[in-house]
Amino acid sequence: MSLVQEIDKRRTFGIISHPDAGKTTLTEKLLLFGGAIQKAGAVKSNKIDMHARSDWMDIEKQRGISVATSVMAFEYEGRRINLLDTPGHQDFAEDTYRTLTAVDSVIMVIDCVKGVEIQTEKLMEVCRMRSTPVISFINKLDREGRDPYDLLDEIEGKLGINVHPLSWPIGMGKTFKGVYSLYDKSLRLFQASRQQLHEEATQIEDINSSELEDYIGEKDAAQLREDVELLSDLYGDLDVDDYLNGDVAPVFFGSAVNNFGVKELLDTFLNISPRPKGRMLDEKSIEPEYKDFTGFVFKIHANMDPKHRNRIAFLRICSGKFERGLNYYHTRQDKKFRISQATAFMAQDKETIDEAYPGDIIGLYDTGNFKIGDTLTLGEKGMYRGIPSFSPEIFREVINKDAMKTKQLEKGLSQLMDEGVAQLFNFELGSRKAVGVVGQLQFEVIQHRLKNEYGATVEFAPMQLFKACWISAEDENKLNEFIKSKQRHIARDKDGKLVFMAESKAWLQMVQDNFPDIQFHFTSEF
Ligand code: G4P
Fold first, then answer.
1. For 63-110, what is each residue's pLDDT tens digit?
2. Which atom of ligand 1 is nearest to the CA of 21?
3. Ligand 1, from 116, 141, 253, 257: best to mutate by most atoms within 8 Å of Cβ?
4. How many whole angstroms separate alpha carbon 256 and alpha carbon 254?
5. What's the domain range around 504?
6. Most ligand 1 atoms within 8 A of CB, residue of 16, 18, 25 to mutate
7. Ligand 1 binding site (Cβ under 6 Å of any ligand atom)
8. Residues 235 and 294 both lie in one domain
9. At what angle do helices 42-52 and 23-33 cross, to 10 degrees?
10. What is the CATH number of the domain that holds 39?
11. Which 8-state DSSP code applies to residue 368?
12. With a threshold of 0.70, does the pTM exceed it?
């Protein structure tokens, strides 16, 4: 197969949702329909196996959340699908944001009872920033949920994206009879079943045909005709380009746990979703067809076994072909690396691969050479952009409780930061270190892992900090003046970039007013 054919074949996407909306269930059902797994429960039980093998992940087990983002690849209908799962828990939002940089589109699961929830709003903001195409799956139609028109309004209002329903529910909850596909004009009748895997569609081209009554009865047929007419007036036909540009989100209705609406979603997704897209390497746009390999690391996963420190770096291939055994250029370190082993993530098994293509995610064994955002190429010398750090929300000072283990602490902190567990800010004055996180739970993970994996004991002391702002100025003298006058509040991030540590919102505003020549940024890429 040529490079272009390999690219055309691939679809790389992420599933996002507020916790409990049904992301894990939908993921599992997509894998079942795709033939990648044979029995329900496999995705969840895999999670439990992982926990059993790891001490530090006990925290995760206890709280029933998924810290890790996993990648599952499978072949379906001639396509290679790379599905990236994301942690739903808000404390690990940064991990999810980074994963979204590695996908070309997103499926967003919404609970029809709860509607749009806060975490979905935040994730959608990230999708919007990157114009990522989004398909929405409204789940749990077997329960008494909200009116579908209200749900569509809420998605438009709260998520700031136009919707376009491609299927429409007939009834809901106890009276849920199925969905009518506005996309391929077929009727799918609902049967509550956690086991059965077929989803039969009956073609009903003409919604006015009396056949409809035979399937769903007079009352529902009349309602459906009314709905379909209204929807067609409101939305017309989907312009797939509007979806591909991230302007319109097609919407499906179903019930993941009952295997309902999942095949329809998967089949339509394969028809309309984007092939792997190009990305910006510094100022240059690199298309996937570009002959030389390029890719970037968006996630680093620590080995489950604390005795072995090696990690897996997850790399998204952006262009060209990956071949095992070649020497790749590591831009940040300005040196070449031979990559003799790489893995693909086929459903739940890891397997060694010899080659991979744009859109694929490969796992590289890492002994400390990679950081999130690192770029590997076969000659190009730039860095992929677009994995910014966001200002954390909570800060604590790191207190070393065992002076004998200072070295281990330094090493542990640095490695955990490379993995993107949290952000470390080193104050310019003195040796104070602030750890910034999105959610409280990350402090526990860090404390636990430092102890278990590095033997270092730390405590975290509260800090009165509001935001970390990356600073820049056109005039270097002005920047230096600012640094001098605010020395106590200046720190460096993991890449040595200058950061102003603002103590409160009001104070930050005052400083901004007093220093108009300084730019304050809330993300590390500006
Ligand atoms: P998440 O990954 O987004 O956090 O959600 P997950 O799939 O774990 O689903 C959360 C709960 O919602 C699960 O129930 C799951 O079975 C249920 N669920 C998923 N899809 C549907 C659906 O279409 N209809 C209904 N009624 N429920 C659905 P649980 O009680 O936590 O687990 P379980 O014991 O049912 O597996």
1. 333 434 478 888 899 999 999 987 766 666 777 888 899 999 999 999
2. 3
3. 257
4. 6
5. 394-521
6. 25
7. 17, 19-25, 88, 139-140, 142-143, 255-258
8. no
9. 120
10. 3.40.50.300
11. S
12. yes
